[in-house]
Amino acid sequence: MAILTRIRNVLPSATTVLTKGAGLAALGMVAYDSNYLGKVQSDLYASSKDAKSSVYYLNNSMHLGNMSKFQSKIKDMSYSTELDQTWKRFFNEGIGYVKGFTSMLVNHAVPLGLGLGALLGGKKTSIASACGIGVYGIYSFIKNFFGIGIPNNLKIDQ
C-alpha cells in the first residue's frame, strides 16, 4: 500500500488533469484561430499596401512637369524600383499578421480568459474556469450549429 500512496502523491489528481486539459484545449483553439486570421490578414494587408504604393509610383511616372527626358527616366526608374522591391512587403506582412492575430485574440476574449484561468489558476479557479469553458463550448456549438441568434436577412414572402 505504501507504493500506491507514493504513486498517488506524485501523480496529479483527475480534476487537475481535466481542468488543465480544458484550459490547454481552449488556448489551443484560440491560438489556432488567431494564427489563421493572422496569416490571412498578413497577405491582405501587404497586398493592399503594395497596390497603393504601385499606383502612386505609376501615377508619378505618367505625369511630367516638362518634356525632360532625364526626369522621365528617373520617374520610370523609381516605378521599376518600386515594383521590384520586397522589403516593404516583408514589414507589411508582419504588421498585418500582428493586426489579424490580436484582433482574433480580442474576438475570443471569453475562451482566452477561461483557458488562462483553468491553466494558471488555483484549484477552485481552475474548476470554475473549466466549467465555464464547457458551458461556453456548448453555447457556441448550439448557436453555430442550429443558427440560433443569427438574423435571417433573407426575407422570402410565400
Total DSSP helices:
6
Radius of gyration: 27 Å
Structural class category:
mainly alpha
What percentage of residues falls in helices of 4 or more residues? over 70%
Q: Calculate the terminal CA-CA distance, rounded to whole Å.
A: 74 Å
Question: Main β-sheet, in a few words?
Answer: none
Give the overall average pLDDT: 86
Question: What amount of the residues lies in strands?
Answer: under 5%
Number of strands: 0
- What general form does the structure show? elongated
Task: Describe what this molecule looks like in 3D.
The structure is a single chain. The protein is mainly α. Helix 2 packs across helix 5 and helix 5 runs antiparallel to helix 6. The radius of gyration is 27 Å and the shape is elongated.
Layout of SSEs?
Layout: H1 2-10, H2 14-62, H3 69-84, H4 87-107, H5 109-120, H6 123-146
Helix pairs in contact: 2-3, 2-4, 2-5, 2-6, 5-6
Structure at a glance:
The protein is built from 6 helices and no strands.
Note the main attributes of this structure.
83% helix; 158 residues; mainly alpha
